[in-house]
Amino acid sequence: QVQVAESGGGLVQAGGSLRLSCAASGRTVSSYVMAWFRQAPGKKREFVAVINRSGTSTTYADSVKGRFTISRDNAKNAMYLQMNSLRPEDTALYYCAANEAVAMYTTEHVYESWGQGTQVTVSS
Fold first, then answer.
1. CA terminus-to-terminus distance, the chain
2. What is the 3-state secondary structure (H, E, C) of the chain?
3. For residue 28, is pLDDT > 90?
4. What is the mean pLDDT of residues 79-97?
């Protein structure tokens, strides 16, 4: 099973940008569909974006479409989330997740590997 760890969170003003990274270890990341989820205080964890094994197909939550971009570099065993035009409602703990299935699931229960999360705080 692959292990994943997030980095790159921080405090940013509304309208700003951040780039999150997810580093994978233990197994080659090219065998996994990978996704980002987030959890705001007092709310359930929600889907943000998912990318297929080769990086050629992506799906986004409506709330981030057009502002966030998910990508991966299998040679570096890494995945990224470029977040632009950030809003206060994007404030959350962001998680990287990996799933060995082929399908690009948007539901968290199918993901086998999770990181500890990286905090993103957007001030107004």
1. 40
2. CCEEEEECCEEEECCCCEEEEEEEECCCHHHCEEEEEEECCCCCCEEEEEECCCCCCEEECCCCCCCEEEEEEHHHCEEEEEECCCCHHHCEEEEEEEECCCCCCCCHHHCCEECCCEEEEEEC
3. no
4. 98
Q: How is residue 29 written in tokens?
A: 């990341």
Cα-Cα-Cα-Cα dihedral sign, residues 109, 6, 58, 45: positive
CB atoms closer than 10 angstroms to residue 39: 15
pLDDT exceeds cutoff 90 at 89 = yes
Q: Distance of CA 21 to CAs 9, 44, 55, 103, 117, Å? A: 9, 22, 15, 22, 11
pLDDT tens digits, residue range 39-84?
A: 999 999 999 999 999 999 999 999 999 999 999 999 999 999 999 9
The Cα 60–Cα 41 span in angstroms is 21
- Residues 36 and 49: their CA atoms lie apart, in Å, by 5
